[in-house]
Amino acid sequence: MSDETNDETFDVSNDVTLEVPVDATNNVTNNASNSETRSNPRKVREGVVVSDKMNSTLVVAVNERVSHARYGKTVQRTKKLYVHDEKNEAKVGDKVRVQETRPLSKLKRWRLTEIVERAR
User: Is 37 within a domain?
Assistant: First the structure.
């Protein structure tokens, strides 16, 4: 054991003991990881804004190139993502980068991270 971290044991019942990691200042350490050190990083996609009619919501079309399961030909598939745009910054035609997030509404699971290129 190191000097900085102690494991205190609490007797909960006759059969079960609970070990809680404690740092040098006797604060219980939090095992929840930071957003930068997630075990599964959040998905990031790039696409073109198709609609900005809703308040603080965009519809972004993301093209994905996949190989056909049987024939092997490369096929383009388009997905529409509902994206949270808090400041209503992006406009139709802008190329944007979006990141996966917790469910914000019935359909919104993405948020705007940056506008890569403005529409002309």
Answer: no
